[in-house]
Each structure stands twice: as C-alpha cells, then as structure tokens.
Amino acid sequence: MASPCNNNNSSVNGFYNFLTQGLNNLHQNNNNFMSMQFMSKVLSSLQSFHSQLTILVQRLCLPVGGKWLDEYMDESSRLWDVCHALKSAISGMENYYSSASNIASSMDNYHHFTLELSHQVIRAIKVCQREILGLEEENKSLMEARIQPLCECINKSITTESKLNEFNGFRGVLYAMKSVSSLLLMILLCGVAYCCSFSCFAFQQTGYDHHHHHEGDNNNNNMGFGSSFMASMGRLQHKVAEEIEHEINNNGQAGILLHEFTQAKVAMEEVKVELERVVVYEEEYEEVVIEEKVENLKHCFGFLRCGLETITGQLDDFFDDIVQSRKKLLDICTHN
C-alpha cells in the first residue's frame, strides 16, 4: 500500500497551482483596484491561501518537533500582527464616518439652510476634515513601519533548490506563502491605511524580473518557482502599481487610496462648498442642489460603512482561522 507521503510532490505542486490561480483571479479583477470590493477579494484570497497551507502541512508527513513548526508559527504570527495593524487603520476610519454621518443626519430636519445652520455645519465639516488629516498622519507612521519588512519578504532572493525542498518541500511552500501574503498585505495597507507612492510595487516588479530571468536561463522551476507562480505575482504587482500611480495622480497627493473613502471625502467637500455659498450670498442659492449633495454624502458614507464592516468581519474570521490552524498543527505534533 502506498504511503500518503508519496503524494508530497503532487500536493506541493498543487499548492503552487492554487496560488497561481488565485493571483490570476485577482489580476483579472473587473473592479477598481482600490475599491472595497477588491480589498475584500484580496483579504479573502489571503485567508484561502493560509487555509490551503494548513491543509498541505498536514499532508507532508513532517517530523514532530521539527524546525518547520517554528517557521510556520513565525509566519502565522506575522500575518496576525499585520492584520491587527489593518484593523487598527479601519477603526480610525470608523470614527471618521461616524462623525460624518452625524453631520449628514443633523441636516435631515431642516428644509431651509439658514446662515446660522450653515455656519454650524461648515464648522463640523472642518473638524471632520482635520480628523482625516490626523488619521492619515497616524496611518502614515504605521505604514512606514510595515512597508519595508513586507518589501523584503517579496524581494528576498530565491535560495537553492535543495533548500526549497527541505521538509518534503515545506520550505519552498513557506517561501511562496511569505512572498504572496506580503504582496497582498501591502495592497491592503495601501488601500485602507496609507500609500505614499507606488514605487514599492514597481521596485518589486524589478525583483520579479530578475528572479524569473535567472530561472529561465537554468530551465529550473525550483519546485514551482517558474513562469506560472512568479509571473502571476509579477503581473499583479505591476497592475496594482499602475492603479496606485493613477489614483495618486488623480488625487494630487498620497494618503488613504480606498475608492469609497476618497469618494466620501469629495462628497463632504461638495456639501461644504454649497453651504459656503449660503454664507456668502445668503438667500441666493439653490436649496435643491444642497439637498442633492447631502443625499450623495449619505450614500457615500453608507457604502464606506458597509464595506468597512465587511472587511472587519473578514479580518475577525481570519484571526479565528489562524488560531484554529496553529492549534490543529500543535495537536497533530502532540498526538504523534
């Protein structure tokens, strides 16, 4: 009877194929790459990749108490840590949309925008806009602390084939997981936390070209690190770099690039501009226009709120998955 360990090669190759297909699906995304829908897909892919990694580890017949377990625990701890940073950034946005929603609600009971009301709402909007600046500054510090380690994981030189084959191929699988998860986490941070430039993605694209070219010369796929896996990762990096460059050019500055967030900022500014017209011209304004701007503001913050709640729920589910996976592998080692 064949040992389940005889299936190691097919299981490892299957994992690389799973990563490749997931990256291709993200690259073929039809939504705005900085939209809440895309962020949700990125996080869902990250969770799926990690779950598949846990399943694979159970199939590889790894030695009890081996270094592989420490390396797996280190990687899952890294995922946990960065995802908590993401959740912290989202919490800041939740405070922001709560304040903005209160501003919109405060105008519901008024059918005529008086000079006094207009002054009051303008002040509230300016306070909210200052909160945005403070939030982005906090997130910038958070991002600067996280971005370099993520870049290093993506751009880490591929080691020798014998090194990647250690622990029945687990070392190579973990390398792949670190690279992919670093890229996906960087995309999430640029969307919901802060993005100062697109250069981090463009630089990594250069790193990908180097590895891919090197491997092609030697006709060596290094356990899946050939054209399919690395090319898929490189294409996604390049596509996201282009999207980020476009968003920064459109906004005229860096910051939180999440599409729904920037739309909400624009909607709030439009309400402020209309109310400032009331202050300047008093009775010479179109009340219907203000009401339309206020309705748009409500819709924008409604979309932002729903999206952030979805992402928060996904993060909580991911935290549960990480805890269960760590427990499962520890239990397997203890049982063995």
From TrEMBL:
It is found in: Membrane. This is Uncharacterized protein LOC107481561. InterPro entries: ROH1-like. It comes from Arachis duranensis (Wild peanut). The chain crosses the membrane at residues 173-194. It comes from the Eukaryota. It holds the Pfam family ROH1-like. Keywords: Membrane, Transmembrane, Transmembrane helix. It is a single-pass membrane protein. One of its GO terms (cellular component) is membrane. Its main location: membrane. Belongs to the ROH1 family.
